[in-house]
Amino acid sequence: MTELLNCDVPELLSRLGDIKELYDITDATTVRFFSDFTSCMDDFECFCFEMMGDMEEFDYSEELYYEEETAEGIEDEREAYGEMYVYTPKDLQMYIDRLRLLLSQKRIKRRDYISRINELERLAVNYVVHTRTNYYGGVWCEMDAGTKKQKSRIKVYTDYNGYCSFFEIICGVLAFFSHCRKRLAELERDYPEVQQKLAEAA
Amino acid sequence: MEREINKDSFLDEFRKVRDIGNRKAKDRSPGFVYIHTATVKSLAEKGEFKVGDIDFSRFTAEDLAEYMEYYENTLAPKVSLANKLFSTLRSANTVFAPSKSCY
Q1: Which of A53, A138, A169, B39 could link A159 by a cystine bridge, Cβ 3.0 to 4.6 Å?
Q2: For residues B93 and B103, what is the distance between their CA atoms, to the nearest angstrom?
Q3: Which three-class secondary structure string do you get for chain A?
Q4: B61 contacts A20 by C-beta, under 8 angstroms
Q5: CA distance A87 to chain B (A)
Q6: B44 CB near a chain A CB, below 8 Å?
């Protein structure tokens, strides 16, 4: 009975609601990710904070500092104001590679290519940055389509001075990965010969 | 208060979906009942549940919203009452335990 009394059921149901929303929009990726989460888990946000760096698509993270130049140069002792997490999902890379190949073969127009890249950039922000208003909630997200030398990636910025829910960030990142997977599957279905060309090029 | 929070009947409040006013428990949607069974009833009977044990295709977002309102209006006050009772008992133990006399 103590578990029942000590459990913050409304908060739990609210999180289930977030997972359900993403389950309906995308797929069961978020459900699988949190499948071992139990109702009596203490400090859930701390658990989610650790998960930010444990995801398979995680590449690296680095702290963010203000650049302040003094007469002597940039100060050595500074406090970080936030952190940036970089994720490089394979499906995103594969999708963009295929788009570039299709563009180079003139199978799609440049306008279509740019439109698809912009859609991903917009969705990365929509999924990860929970707020739809102009109020800065301590989280930002950017997608980088990458180059030949730099992988395609998304960058999630968190501000220590703002409030952000790592649970919501993870849900948003997972939703973006699901979306990339879906777009890739559609592209492979619509242009099956692309797969073969890429295999030959490899 | 003690009679109201008899352990077996108290837990029954969380095991079963109650009739609320004009809304009968049997009229609740299957999704609503599923959420109750998978979450609060599991907490009452087993002490926990896992997200992986929940089938998210068996309820809608509306079912969940309705259930959250039901919990807030019907079950949350009972939890609050029980917590007050236990808090009172803990405080009483501090005062009356012979080894911790305040006099």
Answers
A1: A138
A2: 14
A3: CHHHHHCCHHHHHHHHHHHHHHHHHCCCHHHHHCCCCECCCCCHHHHHHHHHCCCCCEEEEEEECCCCEECCEECCCCCCCEEEEEECCHHHHHHHHHHHHHHHCCCCCHHHHHHHHHHHHHHHHHHHCCCCCCCCCCEEEEEECCCCCCCCEEEEEEECCCCCCHHHHHHHHHHHHHHHHHHHHHHHHHCCHHHHHHHHHC
A4: yes
A5: 25
A6: yes
pTM: 0.81
Residues B39, B49: Cα–Cα separation, whole Å: 6
Q: Which of A41, A60, A4 lies closest to A167 in space, CA to CA?
A: A41
Average pLDDT over residues A107-131: 91
A7-33 tens-digit pLDDT: 889 989 999 999 999 899 888 888 888
Chain B residue nearest residue A32, CA to CA: B52
Helix, strand, or coil here: B15? helix
Rounded to 5 degrees, what angle do the CA atoms A127, A132, A138 make?
80
- CB contact residues (below 8 A), chain B span 17-36, against chain A: 35
Alpha-carbon separation of residue A187 from A95, A113, A143, A153, B21 (angstroms): 8, 12, 19, 19, 54
Query: How does pLDDT run across B48-102, given as a tens digit for each residue?
Result: 888 899 999 999 999 999 999 999 998 888 888 888 887 787 777 655 555 544 4
The interface predicted TM-score (ipTM) is 0.78
> Which H or E run contains B12?
helix B7-15
CB contact under 8 A, A1 and B61: no
